[in-house]
Target: Probable phosphoketolase
Amino acid sequence: MSVDTHTAPAELSDEELTSLDAHWRAANYLSVGQIYLMANPLLSEPLQPEHVKPRLLGHWGTSPGLNLVHTHLNRVIKARGLDALCVWGPGHGGPAVLANSWLEGSYTETYPDITRDAAGMARLFRQFSFPGGVPSHVAPETPGSLHEGGELGYSLSHAYGAAFDNPDLLVACVIGDGEAETGPLAASWHSNKFLDPVRDGAVLPILHLNGYKIANPTVLARLPETELDELLRGYGHDPLHVTGDDPTAVHRAMAAAMDEALDRIAGFQRAARENGATDRPRWPVIVLRTPKGWTGPAEVDGLPVEGTWRAHQVPLAAVRDNPEHLRQLEQWLRSYRPEELFDEHGAPRAHVVACVPEGARRLGATPHANGGLLLRELPLPPLEKYAVEVDKHGATLHEPTRVLGDMLEDVMRATTDRRDFRLVGPDETASNRLQAVYAASGKAWQAAVLDVDEHLDRHGRVMEILSEHTCQGWLEGYLLTGRHGLFSCYEAFVHIVDSMVNQHIKWLRTTRRLSWRAPVASLNYLLTSHVWRQDHNGFSHQDPGFVDHILNKSPEAVRVYFPPDANTLLSVADHALRSRDYVNVIVAGKQPCFDWLSMEEAKVHCARGAGIWEWAGSEDGTREPDVVLACAGDVPTQEVLAAAQLLRRHLPDLAVRVVNVVDIARLLPSEEHPHGMSDFEYDGVFTADRPVIFAYHGYPWLIHRLAYRRTGHRHLHVRGYKEIGTTTTPFDMVVRNDLDRYRLVMDVVDRVPGLAVRAAGVRQRMEDARQRHHVYIREHGTDLPEVADWTWDG
Model:
């Protein structure tokens, strides 16, 4: 046994120690019961095989440590009157968080059938990881949770996101030592350089080192303590150590460490808020070393379990079939002395829950973990204030994201006092033309500032760190605690957070089915610096596939938009920022773009999601179109309109319909997506039997996938990105991928019946134009004047 703390022991009275230990033992008992039992919850009779679940699932190894943290958080919350939230990084330790929620009563308040008595305990046990029950991980169904236990690496960034602009909130964050090996977690330690001790709350990381992952030792647990301290101090933290396996000693050391950490946090906040201190604090971190599977079986079948990787999940795996395992399980459960912890009816005894805070201060009842309860409407200004004037379609150009930046500046300014809106991104706010926001708020920064730096602000709400994982984690934590935000990112690099957005979408989909979970603000992505204007950075910066990934997910929770100009971007952004419980992906360019629609036209078109641009085509209303030119995305829209102009010039008798799609899910059948079109509506727009040449921003097969069941699918021909790219000119990018105006005209000639012979000369002129382009850019290094200086003459 060893106990070590760098602080003086807390003066726990014997009564306090007894109560804390009883609470911890009760939580351990309930954790084991959830993994194993489906009957006989209080062991009121000898344990029988039929009392044990037929399939044993769950994670015991981390649960005793989580229970210890929960017990001691209860103590300090109650003693200090704190508002607190805990992010449980080892979320696979679901039994522990459920056990504590049941003990404090928040679980019964959320699920009244799981009563705080023997019958309710039996239901709690039976439902765990059982068909029709609850997941084995910390999940949306778990009261007090905002961090899904199904994926590791994001707990600390979630915790900081929750603390931003919550000055009275303590966010404890338990970090598992397996999770601590991940890249996202390693980067998120730097979040302390962005935490404002004046306007933000505090984060207390608790690094739980129990030594093992599923089958291997963990890196940080095997570092010498001096080396670990050097690492944590290098991150800007001051470590407090609690180490041991004797419960009494560990309780005393943990209480002392908690008190010391919270005293330091209060001191830093007081110095900044009352005395104007500007030095970046060295925030405390608790390093908790306890055995994996602590208090569980020491050995099973002659092999060591407690303190080894074998304790990770289910230490006794054959309880129904192996009498010795059954005996060990009963001995294990009775070692917690349940008769001392629960009365004859199964309710927790008074001394067991004496440390539990009351009401909304209970960790399972805090409204900060159900952020929709705290959410306020975002004060969005009228779009007309920012709309670009469009007296004639395509007569002027603007940079769409720069126009949006003006709107976001006012949103940031309108939330100055409320502090419930943040803009996050990996070092790209100005690059993405959103720098107008700096007039309302600078960039959050607590580290050193040099004379050459611009827009750094100790109290700023623009968040930039060159870690997409950290940006995503911050924003998720911020949104889930009841605030609003936008994530701006280069299109190609948002893929870095693919797995993170997976979990967030699953979270949203699940919460929609929980009546007690209030809707939260949507997670909004603005993807710019996109594939068609990465001609200068080249192939490495060209990837439009994030939308494919998103559209694989739950249709009820995802939306993807391709606004073709500045006014449609304003309309789509306004809609996304007002929405709830979605992941909205907006793909828009930052380079000068033609203004196609007035503000009123943009609002109507975006509400429709897809529509015919009558002014762009050559239909006369007397017959069906000969061909449909469809487009989604700003560059594809320009190429389609240029193709329509060429067709009007060279084939004036051809009836061309132009269709623009903003909401890509409109292509899906209505029974597959809430925004999908009925077959009747789809055929009315795209026709049932006429060729459709579709110029799409991303990978062409996505459009085929969305529309494959439509009547006219065999007439659908899609042009898009084909993974052909390099450092070249803007127009050469579309030529290389066969998305250019000349190729689109050639497609029309090839696919409209009768044109192949009649318009062979037109096709040849288009092919000649492509060849002329290749020669010209190699000689001049820029695009053909007829392309670079093109204007819409509609």
